[in-house]
C-alpha cells in the first residue's frame, strides 16, 4: 500500500451529541512539523518586490496587440517595467485619496492593468476587492456598498455598469480609472454625477508626478476580500490575509520541488480563468514568485485556441468544462477517422495506459505512442504543455485518464475553496494511482473528516466518510462584516467546508454536492 499523507492522531467518537471526527492528516512534508516560512516572502508585496530585482529583465506580463484589426503577437512587459508602473499607480492611488486599509475595486477581464492595479494596492496596504457580475444581478452594487469602495479600476466596456449602480448615484463612487481610456459615450454622465475619471496613462502620469512612499503590508494585513456566492442570496466577502496567500505559495513551491520537472523562469502560463476568482490569482502569484511569464487571453473564450497557438504555454489550468471540451473535440475527430486508424489509436491508448498503471511516468510509458498519435493532442494545447491542472469542481475519471494518456504532460487536480486560498489538497502530478481523487493535504494545511449523522457518514467507518474540515495558516480570517457566519463555519479552530469526502488510502475523493 502506498502512503501519501501523514496521520497525526487517531480521531475520536463523539460524546454527548458531538459528532465523531476522523484522524488529522498532513502532507508528508509536514509530518513532524510544518516547514519554516520563507522570511523573504511574508506578504504578496514581497513576491513582486523580490522578483523585480531577481528577475528584472524577464518577461512578466504579456498581451496581444491588435494590428490592422487583427490579433498580433504577444507584447511583453518585464518585471522591472511592471514594478515601475506599480509604484506610479500606487502613488496615484494615494494622491487621489485612497488610504492604507481602505478598499479599492477592480472590475474587468484579465489583463496587464488588472495585475498592476492589484500589486499597487499591496504596495500601500490597500485591500484589493475584485468585482464581477457573475454572482447575480446587483452583485457589483452590493460589493461596492458592502466593502465601502469609492475607487475602482475598470475595463472600458464595464464603465456603463458602474455608472448605473446605486453607488454612483448615491455619491459613494468617487474615482474610476479605466484600463485604457474613458469611453466617449460615458463621459457626459461621469461629469453629471461628479465622479473623477482617468485613463490609464493619465493615472500613471499623476503617480509619476506625485510620488508617495509605499506603506508595505504586514503578514496579518488584509490582502484581498473576495466575494463568493452566499446561501442567503447576498455574496459573502472572504477575507484573506497576506500570510494566508504567501504560505499557500510557499507550500506549493516546496511540493513542486519534489518532482522531476521543476518550475523555471522559462515557464509560461495562459491566464483566462477569472482573476476575480482565487484559482487564477494564486497561479499567477506562484508564477511571479518563480520569475516566469503570464500571458493574457484576448477576451474571447470561444477563440482560446488562437491564444494557445500564439503563446505556446508550458502550464495550463482550467475547470473541468474546459477539459471536457478538449476531450469531446478529440473524440469527435477520432470518430471521423478510418476504422483502421481508429483501431491503432485505441491500441496505443491501451498500451500507454497499461504502463502508466504499472507506475511508469508519462514520458517513459510509451514514447512511440506519443510520437505516432498523442503529440497531435498536445499540439492542440500549443505544443509545449508540461503540466495540466484542473480545479473548481471534480474532474471526471474518464477525462482525467484521457488527459494523462494523451496530453504528453503531467496532470494534477486538487480541491480548495476561496476560504482556503484555492488549494487544500493536491494530487501528485506523476502518480497514476491518484487518478479520480483530489490528492493529499497541501503543505501547510491539516485535514480531517467530521461525522454527518443525517447522511450516515462516519469518519471512523469503512470507508471513512464525512465533511471536510481544514485548519492552518492558509485558511481565511473570516467573512467581511458577518461574524455570525464566520462563527458558524469556524469552530474550535477548524473551518467546516460543507464539502463531503471519502478517504481512500491516504488520498481523498470529493463527492458532488
From TrEMBL:
**SUPFAM superfamilies per the record?**
Acetyl-CoA synthetase-like
Q: Name one GO cellular component term.
A: membrane
Q: Which GO terms describe its biological process?
A: cutin biosynthetic process; wax biosynthetic process
Under the heading Pfam families, the entry gives: AMP-binding
Question: AMP-dependent synthetase/ligase domain: from which residue to which, for each copy?
Answer: 63-480
Name used for this protein in its record: AMP-dependent synthetase/ligase domain-containing protein
Q: Which organism is it from?
A: Aquilegia coerulea
Q: Name the domain of life this protein comes from.
A: Eukaryota
GO MF terms here are: long-chain fatty acid-CoA ligase activity
